[in-house]
Amino acid sequence: xxxxxxxxxxxxxxxxxxxxxxxxxxxxxxxxxxxxxxxxxxxxxxxxxxxxxxxxxxxxxxxxxxxxxxxxxxxxxxxxxxxxxxxxxxxxxxxxxxxxxxxxxxxxxxxxxxxxxxxxxxxxxxxxxxxxxxxxxxxxxxxxxxxxxxxxxxxxxxxxxxxxxxxxxxx
Length: 171
Hints:
The protein is of the alpha+beta class and about 170 residues long. Helix content is about 25%, strand content about 25%.
């Protein structure tokens, strides 16, 4: 899609790579090691918000880890993860705000990562947020404002962005 104004051009705001284990302890440490190997950044633990007795979850217990990437590092990791999926995404991966989420069932599909017996087999999820320049207005601390509907990134624009920049096929 051609844009007359460079401020209309969509861009990747951030990419979040996430592994949810559902429990703390040794497996969570292995997940953190995997994310650090994949991204080169130190992961942050995610904490459970509510108590679910049937799953054995307590409020405030660590259940997963995530890494947020921005800029060229986000592009690099997204390319590696999409290559592991053979550059194919279903149309249902794109939401109405232009965000994209996809997962991998095994990390060994990613180029450059070999099976580590200490980690075992583990999957991961990636969520990519796409927005236009100027969306800071929505998130700033002082005088935050809503973004009008016509300035939001649609799912179709997001699909076009992924096709043009990453060579993704949509199923």
